[in-house]
Design brief:
This protein has about 350 residues and is α/β, with parallel strands linked by helices. The chain folds into 2 domains: about 240 residues, Zn peptidases (Aminopeptidase, 3-Layer(aba) Sandwich), CATH 3.40.630; about 90 residues, RNA polymerase II/Efflux pump adaptor protein, barrel-sandwich hybrid domain (OB fold (Dihydrolipoamide Acetyltransferase, E2P)). It is about 20% helix and about 30% strand. The chain contains 7 helices and 16 strands. Strand 13 and strand 14 form a beta hairpin. Helix 1 crosses helix 7. The N and C termini lie far apart (about 40 Å).
Amino acid sequence: MTRILKVGGVLAAAGEVKYGPLATFDMRDGTPVSIPVIVVRGIKEGKTLLCVAGHHANETLGIEAVIQVAQKKLNPKNMRGTFIGVPCATPFGFHIGMRTNVLDEDTVMPHYPGKADGILSERIAKVIWDNAVIPADVVIDLHSNFKPALNFTLVPRVLDEELSEETLRLAKLCGVTTIQTEEQVLSRHPQAKEAGQEGNLVEMAMYEGKPAFYLEGDGSNTLDQKDVDIMVRGILNVCKDMRIIEGTTEEQKGIKVVKARSGMKLVPLSGMMVRANRGGIVTKAIEPGEFLEKGGVIARIHNLYGEEVEVVRAPVSGYTWGFPLRTKSGLQTQAVFSGAEVCYWFHEVPK
């Protein structure tokens, strides 16, 4: 093995757990703020798994899952290869409990592979890309939804069908509902990189030939250990398949898992969202993962006089994985305005 592995500002020898700043950026008053990274390096050669959380800084479930995998679940003395965890990609939002990067009023998520001379979010994406994505063999981007929500993986389809299938196989190991994008999300490549175009972490990692997917948990607004355990178990199952650690994959228990019928797959609704036409307070009529026929009632909206102003109906037969009901900054609210998000929607289509 290489004697010392350098990941940003962290140096890890074989058999060590090391943590510190991936890079440091300044706030308006010059106060330095670091992008944290944890490196768990095995004693034998092997593959590298990267988990990034906190692209949406209010989603603490993924942040905690990365910390627990790295600090409690992995023993570098019994490992091959390396686990790299970036617990919080957006610390400038995390500091004040907001979803976005409040300094540049943007988000890191869509700016990969980033720019060294760009806005702050692009600079953060650049250091994560150069130091953590490039050495990784597999990438997982961790997110969570406000309760109640399904635990699920979201898998993009790319031009390379073999890569798409391998990514789907890895995502299914997490033991939660698996949803696939129907369209090829990287159709604009291979010219995109040369043209300086940007994309989200998962898209751009797959463009580089690395299996990459989203793992989403149940609970942006809570931090229950049982929810953390589901996400941790999914990550460890991928570690086992990559031979980073030994052991058989563990089945998830006690959670709702939606499975497609034979010959079918689960895909998001185009645009992913069902939106409100009228404003008011939302009362939900279904639970995440509950099947609903086209035209069935998802939710009802009433105004401040108690008058029902809209019945939100299923656009196609399918399921919701959660009700975001949030502001752009990430604050949860049970009321909507015209055009606001009511719920995510997914459904079955032929493979």
